[in-house]
Amino acid sequence: MNQLITGGAGFIGANYLYYLAEQNTKDKIVCLDSLTYAGNLHTIDSLIKEDKITFVKGDITDRALVDKVLTEHQIDVIVHFAAESHVDRSIEDASAFLNTNILGTHVLLEAGRQHGISRFHQVSTDEVYGDLPLDRPDLLFTEETPIHTSSPYSASKASADLLVLAYFRTFRFPVTISRCSNNYGPYQFPEKLIPLMIANALADKKLPVYGKGENVRDWLHVRDHCRAIAMIVNDGKVGEVYNIGGHNERSNIQIVQTILQSLGKDESLIEYVTDRKGHDLRYAIDASKIGKELGWKPEIYFDEGIVSTIKWYLDNKPWWEEIVSGEYQAYYAKMYGGRS
Ligand code: NAD
Ligand code: TDX
Questions:
Q1: Suppose 188 and one of 11, 80, 152, 257 were both cysteines; which one would form an S-S bond, judging by CB atoms 3.0 to 4.6 Å apart?
Q2: Burial class (CB in 10 A: 0-12, 13-18, 19+), 319
Q3: Any idea what the CATH number is for the domain that residue 294 is in?
Q4: pLDDT confidence of residue 339
């Protein structure tokens, strides 16, 4: 089988490529990534050098290029990670989100359909369900929860999901969708909560917590996410949506306190700043469907996963220091400058 992995130079896509390599897959793996600010070839250098993957630099919105890749590599399966993924950036300017997340997904669907591929997997997010109240711990997102988006990012992901499902209903195109909660682990770009707080704490910079820090996310280690995706690609039922989550709800302030404690830093570094616009209150996933149908459950406990993740950032400073010393500085000044 020949697999096309889009967005494999980003956080989850790269972890998926490493996961496939560790499984000693006999499949031919091709990675298509345009290397936006979030894509980093250093992350997957070793896989390219060892010939575990073929890397193609290019944009998923480029139909001619996608056709060429599907033909040249005789692709059977597309696993689609490529996206603009940061909510705060989508609030500043949504255009790249609509272009990549919606139009890019459409290009892949249409090209995949015309090439007769056997499976298209859409990597989606729990954010398409909107949010849950903080005072109703009994409520969880199921696959039946209505789509109800808050940010331009989640609206773009939901639009893509609806297109994917339309291709199944209209053309019987063999799709699956996974909707996962917040991921953490190695190679996450330092604009996201956990790596941002680790990098700031190590530099003794303020840790910017939005609002009161009460918002709740359901954290899952990226490796558990990757294992779930592989199971869905191999054994999931076409036309179906599978929720993926860790039953591991933490408020943002709890996460920040855990990081500070682990690094031996003082809580006086915490700075409460202006809240995110439209900030979703709580995400929590009911992952019982993938458990029952495919036998998946999370294997990495958060208390262990967060310690190994912090260790990874300590052991791999060159990887993220290069990022935070570049254009990230201008991003940080723009997003956080006038916020406190
Ligand atoms: P990321 O921002 O770290 O990486 C995105 C990758 O896609 C980058 O390598 C980038 O260069 C590439 N890319 C962006 N636009 C492209 C384009 N037009 N053509 C080709 N490549 C392009 O994102 P991530 O956190 O790894 O997320 C991967 C996927 O998982 C996304 O679809 C996201 O919506 C979904 N997701 C993420 C999380 C999370 O917690 N990070 C949770 C659930 C779902
Ligand atoms: O500086 C910060 N301070 C802060 O309080 C940042 C960057 C975030 N936050 C808060 C906002 C959220 O409540 O932390 C929480 C997590 O924020 P992000 O890391 O930006 O993630 P989130 O907005 O929850 O979205 C993530 O999970 C779902 C991913 O970025 C999405 O791609 C995925 O779909």
A1: 11
A2: middle
A3: 3.40.50.720
A4: 86
Torsion of CA 135, 136, 141, 146, to 10 degrees: -90
Ligand 1 in contact with 96 (CB < 6 A)? Answer: no
Cβ 81 under 6 angstroms from ligand 2: no
Q: What is the DSSP-derived secondary structure letter of residue 128?
A: G
Say if 255 falls within a structural domain. no
274 lies in some domain: no
Q: What is the pLDDT of residues 138-149, one digit of tens each?
A: 999 999 999 999
Question: Residue 128: is its pLDDT beyond 80?
Answer: yes
Q: Give catalytic residues, as residue numbers.
A: 126-127, 153
Give domain status of residue 311, yes or no: no
What is the best residue among 15, 19, 81 to mutate for testing ligand 1's pocket, by most ligand atoms within 8 Å of CB? 81
Contact 26, 128 (CB under 8 A): no
Q: What is the pLDDT of residues 212-229, one digit of tens each?
A: 999 999 999 999 999 999
DSSP character at residue 103: I
The tally of domains found in the chain comes to: 1
Q: Regarding beta strands 28-33 and 54-57, do their DSSP bridges make them parallel or antiparallel, or are they unpaired? A: parallel
Kindly state the percentage of the chain with pLDDT values over 70. 100
* Structure tokens belonging to residue 286: 């009911």
Of ligand 1's listed atoms, the one at least distance from the Cα of 61 is 18
- How many angstroms does the Cα of residue 127 sit away from the middle of ligand 2? 11
Q: Tell me which residue range forms the domain holding 175.
A: 2-182+221-245+282-299+329-336
- Residue nearest (by alpha carbon) to ligand 1 atom 21: 33
State how far the alpha carbon of 92 is from the alpha carbons of 23, 35, 95, 223, in Å: 40, 20, 10, 30
Whether residue 89 is contained in a domain is answered as yes
Give the list of residues 6+ apart from residue 182 with CB closer than 8 angstroms, or none. 193, 217, 218, 219, 220, 283
Phi and psi angles of residue 72, each rounded to the nearest 5 degrees, phi first: -60, -40
